[in-house]
Amino acid sequence: MRDSPRKDGQAVLTGTPPSPAPDEDPGQSAGITSVEVPTLRLGAGTPERPPLSAQFTSSSRGARFARRLAVRRMADWGYPPESDVACAVAVVVGEPAANAVRHGRVPGRDFRLRLSLDAVAGLVRVEVADAAGERRPAAGPVLPGPGAESGRGLLLVEALAVRWGSAPRHPVGKTIWAEISAGPSAEAAR
């Protein structure tokens, strides 16, 4: 799987998705720490760091691949997979992608991931769009009951993101977006 920038700065994906390693637990995530975040404007990326935009099947494999591709793009941008930023992006991509598959699935429709980096502002913007517009999340996360087996995903997004929300997607559907503090990349620190 590789991507190449187009003239408009978007990435075009070619190839086939990588298969998960036999010993890999796709649900396992690394430790995440809190991050201090400034409130800054988000740009559209740069030619050296083009945004990632890709469409995935509405399946658990599609959600897993979206998360893995986001971590790979973060590595391309200088944030190693084990870094706090890449781990936060993995969770923030994984939760709305899983929700798009579970709650936003419309037969015959895929979901879309867009990931962009504003190095000047130090923010990564994650956008996950699906075709089900009538089911938008509440303005703030709802606490699940003590015995509930699900319902904590948006609590994680809220804890890791500077800000997050949802917006209508035209002509149909919704987009869940979040902005994550990135700070300088490992390459910039050298």
From TrEMBL:
Keywords: ATP-binding, Kinase, Nucleotide-binding, Serine/threonine-protein kinase, Transferase
One MF annotation (Gene Ontology) recorded for this entry: ATP binding
Residue ranges, annotated region (Disordered): 1-59
Entry-linked Pfam families: HATPase_c_2 (PF13581)
This protein's record includes keyword Transferase: yes
CDD domains to which the protein is assigned, alphabetical: HATPase_RsbW-like
UniProt-recorded name of the protein: ATP-binding protein
